[in-house]
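cron nightly-structures :: item 1 of 1
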Amino acid sequence: MWLFKWMNYEASQCTWEDSSKLPTNCDRFIAEFERTARAEGFVVGDPMGYIVLQEGARAGWRRPGWY
């Protein structure tokens, strides 16, 4: 699952999207996300792992199932 921040929308309006439904032109955005995640100290590459970047956390987003 990916938490998408859509262009021209606030981070609080992100939506969770299944990996199988991602648009085909997301490669550069995923690469940017992974660079930022590593810079924030996350380990990237665990298919069962969840990463919510600082921007998303500030907007109140958490891993699905976290309350």
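cron nightly-structures :: done
The chain has one domain: 2-58.
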